[in-house]
């Protein structure tokens, strides 16, 4: 099977998956994971994929006809637990029980649905903003086959007056890298198109606030306040941002500095 993972992008990638790790995960989760999901994790244990979208018959907070899917969680037994964070996420975000979270960022979640069975789960979207839960695909194989790259062109006039064309993939690649300066440039661009790109801005800020590099999280916290001041962020997104900041000992001071009343 051809790899779905992005090359030269290790963000979100966990240690190499073993059969023992799979057994432990299934025992903890009390489910049988789809073989196709296990197979892609054996290629790479989580991270960013070559695609960014899956069709949706129901309009979502992201778009009228698709949902954003640009990464999958792996299986981790150390500090980074991947899908083994499902129980925590279910409690933290008040999500449906008996699901396994395989992708998402607090704005919306993609999950394997085990509410009515313990094997061959369907794949569902849990949209926090729209308060809706619905099926995206009857099984994970079908879900994989439906993934595609949604290309949207952006234009940016840089300081040297050279126009730059952006795509969703390019912006996501920038946000998943470790260069806080490039990330700031991308956020600057989005700030000039904030009313049109609200969903992208909100999802990106949530992801950046969970980045492994402190400087990136600091950059995200700064820009989060900028977008908050301009009234771009939804109430639920601001609540999520404040929660992430207050739970991060290295940047929690931003909460008192910018969001003291929240």
Summarize the structure in words.
With 262 residues, the protein is of the alpha+beta class. It has two domains: 19-146, SMI1/KNR4-like, CATH 3.40.1580; 154-258. The protein is 38% helix and 16% strand. The chain contains ten helices and ten strands. The chain has helices spanning 19-29, 35-43, 86-93, 140-146, 168-175, 180-191, 198-208, 214-229, 235-246, 253-258; strands at residues 47-48, 53-55, 66-68, 71-72, 99-104, 108-113, 122-127, 132-137, 154-157, 163-166. A four-stranded antiparallel β-sheet has the order 5-6-7-8. InterPro entries: ARM-type_fold, Knr4/Smi1-like_dom, Knr4/Smi1-like_sf. This is Knr4/Smi1-like domain-containing protein. It comes from Metabacillus malikii. Residues 16-146 form the Knr4/Smi1-like domain.
Task: Summarize this structure as a short list of keywords or feature phrases.
alpha+beta; 2 domains; 38% helix; 262 residues; two-stranded antiparallel ribbon; SMI1/KNR4-like
Mean pLDDT: 86
Q: Tell me the number of strands.
A: 10
Could you give a short account of the major beta sheet?
Answer: 4 strands, antiparallel
Secondary structural class: alpha+beta
- Low-confidence region ranges: 153-163
Assign an overall shape: globular
- Report the C-alpha radius of gyration, rounded: 18 Å
How many domains in all? 2
Protein name: Knr4/Smi1-like domain-containing protein
Organism: Metabacillus malikii
Pfam families: SUKH_6
Domain Knr4/Smi1-like: 16-146
